[in-house]
Amino acid sequence: MDFDPLMLARVQFALTAGTHFLFVALTLGLATLVALMQTRATLARGGAAVVRARMVRFWGQLYVINYAVGIVTGLVMEFQFGLNWGGMSSLVGEVFGAPLAMETIAAFFIESTFLGLWIFGWDRLNRWVHLGLIWVVTLTAYASAYFILVANGWLQRPVGHVMEGGSARLVDVGALLGNPPAVLAFGHVLFGGLLTAGFFMAGVSAFHLLRRTAEVEFFRRSVRVGLVAVVASVFPVVVFGGMQFAYLQPTKGGATERGLAEQAGFVQRFGPGDYLPPGLATVGEVVMMAAWLLMTLVAVAGLVKLPFGRWLVRGRVFHVVLLVAVPLPYVAMLAGWVFREVGRQPWMVYGVLKTEDALSKVDPGWIIASFVVFTVLMAVLTVVNGWLLARFARRGPQGVQLGAAPPAGPVAGSAPALTPTF
């Protein structure tokens, strides 16, 4: 059977990268919200401190599940650079690989180490030390996302390099790290993560409130935290997204005057061909904006209800809306990713390396086998992650296994515990 190895390799990377990004967004957002909740729990006193400490454990456990499975998807995704895209590694590996190396060495190792200390440090470390751990985890998660976006931003707008001996050499680290498509995308992704975690937290809380849970106070506070995150991030995410249009590749706008002029220039430099992106890029842009508008409507409704705790608990229709809205940020993220990445085609590195030239020169059978294995593996990981999140979210705070369970009351012969220990 005839097939296009290039298209198959592209689809494979789209599936794996898109799947991994879903994990990343929730991880970034939940890490931030868990760190903020633990800060409030550490500063609080009395009964409020106990409720907030239980919230940290419950939402922290869901964060750890998503993080752990997401790490595996990230490793699977990065294997493809060496397997399917050898032409890219040989031509621009020095520049593209630099921020990826910085992400691994300076961010990921620190993040995973401190997360391990946070997980196993419950009731063993001073509460302020334990609080510091989750903030280190959060900040290094931001750093990890930034370095990844630096690499991707260079694909969109290659700066800070020269071509020598048939390969790219990095000559300006500042230009690479300060590349606007990377910096603005970082703000976009950061608030997108908060938006994703906010809808996730609000949706899970709405599920329990809809079922008339006995943990009313727990999930009333949780749905409020989720809605505050949604309201606070729904407009900044579109602001950072809109600012990126100033650095949009001329061809991404389609057959406009600028796009056609750029097309003519590419024909002169690289020979005849179609250098305008496929229509799928425009579809991604439209779907992304439609999903954002729906999220904005939910945010406005949440803003109206936030001052009234009774409405948050008893509004059954609103609970259903929050449940249905959980997928919206994921839809917006995937659509935005399609617009950003498909809109760069036919370039792997815009104006430097065509996608067809980045493909590894391997037997086509290897690409088929790689596609099948990677796709099945990512699908299994996604299903497992969804099942685990749903299972532990449905159990509620009583099913928390992260750290020791919060004390139900004072132990005989000891003083009452007025503050949580971390």
UniProtKB/TrEMBL annotation:
| Example of a GO cellular component annotation carried by this entry | plasma membrane
The UniProt keyword set, sorted, is:
Cell inner membrane, Cell membrane, Electron transport, Heme, Iron, Membrane, Metal-binding, Oxidoreductase, Transmembrane, Transmembrane helix, Transport
Q: Which InterPro entries match?
A: Cyt-d_ubiquinol_oxidase_su_1 (IPR002585)
Membrane topology is:
Multi-pass membrane protein
Q: Which domain of life is it from?
A: Bacteria
Could you state one GO biological process linked to this protein?
Answer: aerobic electron transport chain
Segments crossing the lipid bilayer:
12-37, 58-76, 96-120, 132-155, 185-210, 222-247, 286-308, 320-339, 366-388
Q: What is this protein called?
A: Cytochrome d ubiquinol oxidase subunit I
